Protein 1
Amino acid sequence: METLITLLVGVLVAVGVYLLLAKEMLRIILGTAILSHAIHLLILTMGGLKKGDVPLLQEGAAQYTDALPQALILTAIVISFGVTAFLLVLSYRVYQESGRGPGLRGPRDE
Amino acid sequence: MNNLLVLPMILPVLVGVILVFIKPYIRLQRLISVLTTIASAAIAAYCLERIHRTGIMRLDFGDWLPPHGILFVGDSFAVLLVLVACVVSSIILLYAFATTGLEAETMFFYPFFLFLLAGVNGSFLTGDLFNLFVCFEVMLLASYVLLTLGGRKTQLKEGITYVLINVLASWFFLLGIAYLYGALGTLNMAHIAVRVAEVGQGPLLSLIGIIFLLVFSLKAGLLLYFWLPGSYSAPPTAVAALFGALLTKVGIYALYRMFTLIFVHDPLIYKMIGVLAVVTMVGGCLGAIAYSDIRQIVSYNVIISVGFVLTGLAIATTTSFQGASYYLIHDMVSKALLFLLVGTVVYLTGRSKVNEISGLIRNYPLVGWLFFLAMLAIAGIPPLSGFIGKVYMGLGAIETGSYVLLAVAFLSSIGVLYSLLRIFLNSFWGETTISEDDQKPFKKAIGLPLVLLAVLNVGMGVGAELLAPYIQDVANTLADPQQYIQAVLDEDVK
């Protein structure tokens, strides 16, 4: 299972990098969003995937799932959500100001 | 009493949130924000004195004992930087009062200023790697807003680059955290250090160390500084000064923390940092000499000093740490002063090219002489604050026989001096081009923060003796990671 998810992370990173290298602002922003999803999956995988029980911890519990990566991802998701929203607004503002992306190809050139 | 440790971070956050609600009352916002930064500075000063007397402070949130909970660790290094950051940002705030337009002020300039300070202070104080990431993001998000607030074309353009670069750096930061958590199963920095020492720093852990080196190099502008000159010369002066004084310093702090506490077992990494520092100083000097836009020149000066401070990390002896910490706090004050002066010149003349400005010292003697003073301080002329840091750095380099680093570090001072002298000779001396009638009035409110920073600068040089015990603390904790680890972890934790 871990191997499979790691491969998926690899694919997502590849897609993200491809989009980042594109010329359109919207694609670049989507690229950063996909990259951040890839890293969230990686953190989850690094904590070990399913280990057979709930993440609640009692004294001497034999089996439990590590809850920490989930907490980390939750925080990271919120942050990447905020940054993506900011980037979208910023690029819209740039578009308004200049009618095109910053030195990039905008819809009007199509 | 350890609860005090959280205040330099939580106070700006809370006050920033309150300021959002009193949007129309600009005067009140100004008053409250400057009081907040001064209060944070006072708390940091008290903590610094306490740490000097009783040792490293620690605050476990919710009483979760380390390594299980998130905690703040106040060692002298962190708290000293918090103190200087708060003092410098209070003075920059005074400048912002006089120069920030009403438009930006009503659009939440002060809340974001405080959020940025909160992120910076949090990054210095936290003892948990993931929390460091979060504090970095708080700081960065605030800086994105401050950089683009006002929405001039250059600001937006540089803003996009700056945000994308930092999103990518944050991605690598998370990558490093994920790998480290997978390898060691902990995020508490002291606990990570213990485990790294236990299992030995093999190739895998060194690789993770290099990922962190990459991340923090991007933030600090060590070698990966291509984004820096553009985004530091785009925003309004007060914001540029804040960036120049604080932002790269957080990256430098993180590098010091990582490679004096956690990844300390591989000499190769220190060699790499040494090479990076040398290349950074050479590149910074070339940039500072090549450009003729004064804002660009000053931004490249930031890069040179990043290289200089990290020379101390590459040498890694108690003496070089002393030099680096002296130089680091000097640099925060001097870069703030330099950015404010250059911004003032651009504001007064409306031009930014070296050869388009002339004879300013006749029109504005105060600005001219303060620039002269700042130049001497940054070049390291004795009674001023840059000198003592350079001396200790040199001593450290000689102790370990790192003569290449020594030579480049001191030659870079000449580069700094040359680049700033060029501004001084061209723009301040020579025939004056502004007649007395056309001359823009020089507001006292602009002069005050400049003078305060200059006084601080001279004070730190003349009063180096007063600072010495604290700097000694800093160097000792950096040179001996066991002190930090023992303060955080009780003995039975493994």
Protein 2
Amino acid sequence: MSAVAGTHAQDQHHGPARGFSRWLLTTNHKDIGSMYLIFSFTMFLLGGTMAMVIRAELFQPGLQIVQPEFFNQMTTMHGLIMVFGAVMPAFVGLANWMIPLMIGAPDMALPRMNNWSFWLLPCAFLILVSTLFMEGGAPNFGWTFYAPLSTTYGPPSTTFFVFAIHIMGVSSIMGAINVIATVLNMRAPGMTLMKMPMFVWTWLITAFLLIAVMPVLAGVVTMVLMDINFGTSFFNAAGGGDPVLFQHVFWFFGHPEVYIMILPAFGAISQIIPAFSRKRLFGYSSMVYATGAIAMLSFLVWAHHMFTVGVPVAGQLFFMYATLLIAVPTGVKVFNWVATMFRGALSFETPMLFAVAFVILFSIGGFSGVMLAIAPADFQYHDTYFVVAHFHYVLVPGAIFGIFASAYFWLPKWTGHMYDETLGKTHFWLSFIGMNLAFFPMHFLGLAGMPRRIPDYALQFADFNMVSSIGAFMFGATQLLFVLIVVKCVKGGEKAPAKPWDGAEGLEWTLPSPAPYHTFSTPPEVK
Amino acid sequence: MAEQPANTPTPRRSNLRVIGWCLSGVVGMFAFGFALVPLYDVFCDITGINGKTNGRYESTEGSVADMERSVKVQFLAQNGPGMPWVFRPVARSIEVHPGEATTVNFYAKNPTGQDMVGQAVPSLSPSEGTLYFHKTECFCFNQQPLAAGQSTEMPLVFIVDPDLPDHITKLTLSYTLYDQGEPQAAAITKTTVDNG
């Protein structure tokens, strides 16, 4: 990189290095952001392929395609790859690209660490995916790796799984530190905290969540590692340990983790809806406080994942009410999005379609979450397809649609070209229909008692499962269309103006499209 | 750093400060994850939830038996995974008066051709009764070695607290016996069971 803090004009001439070393050694937030996004989409396709194996096996009752052992590996790896490989890196990629542009910073605060935190990820997932080819197979205990399934009964590859999680954790923590340092130290003059775009706010809060809980995940996998290899008994009753302890420590990480996967999407949606409603975001400060409230409450609700392990009544009531309380700030956010659209001059380009679908379908996922939070009812729903339906409704039209909405919204800024609107809308509608076909019947299957993570099922569940599989294939195939759309958009297309969406606001739209390699070398004025 | 303009007067120092705070948060939360292990045990100990009965109960002097009331205590014995011993309570259930010290025996036999060590881990149901069930002597406080083919009767002395809530009329004490390996190996990897 240039050793001289050049003037604005000189910086314009300083382009990226050539060849592979550009990507290996880059400290440019845009390059790293792009690598994160490409990596996460690759992982999305890999995890999606595993989902296709799962749905193909569940297309009909009986065992058709895979053996139960392999089916278990597929459910486990699908979950791990989607959570840690697809959703989280995609948001880090968006943060890398957009946070400096939104706050008027020339780059992330810690560019070298940024490079390192990205390149750890391919290493981690190489290790994780390689377990599929090891003797004894990949991890097969579900993404939640409950002890003793992962300790006493885990396959030999569990140790590699632990190491992969450690590396991912280090990567996430470094990403989070980078976001915090950037947001706190690199804002343009005049950009006060309460003037920051919502996406930056939600990411700042997400970064604090990451710093708080990723070390706990690292701790719990370390305990698993020690139980397996060093003869400790953290989770082994024979040595005085307790497997229920595993669930407490895991979900202390796990519940904030679900907000880590959704808060940045909340932020992105809060950018997109005002742009296509041609109005300012309704209730900006209440949005900020609601996000903070959700983040704090997320530490007090972990045991709602484990009502059935034998939590005393007082504990069940506490965790039930604390969980129901989260519906309040979440309701504030949904209200604000709807109020932003109310009497707005709406137009429905692809990002807005994904954003509106986000609001509606995420709310459905939220409602089934409220049902699951009710302790006495949860005993019926626990470990059924109702739970699968719930978390896919918050993660697919929540996190994933949020990412797609962001991608379409900012693609013109990234590539300098407009994406193909017809193809984009096709991608949305096929995804929307496929996703609902795939996951809505799972509510009924779960209420009727079909257990999750089982490769076979009773005959009465056959029809809904077939519908669900058809929807899943449709959703899966549709995502290949997104590859085509992005490649087309990168290669050419209609020239994008600096501000392709007339209702959009923010510093990123003051830059030309595509955003130059170096931006805001001179900080902008924020009024 | 060279490309950073003077957005902030001393970006390097404030960045280092943020990194320092964040890293101390990371280290603190990693430690907190491990601190949850003893905290969990202490919490279960105080509240008696999870059926973890407390350790050795000291005082038997001066306790007065409540002859008006009787409580049924049932005993269950089961083997942990891969444990080949014969393990059962001598009496399946008895009626006791709260406050009265009672002795019961559990029978264990090592039918294999190898010397072995076992460790019993107790659990009480309903967990609400855990705080009112005191053991003054228990084979579960120690590991139990048995030579090949040897059998033994292992004693348990307990007192049901007179403060036991009235609606509890029955307590079930369950033991799970775990294989701790051969005696010498067990001596090396001896694990302490503090909830016994």
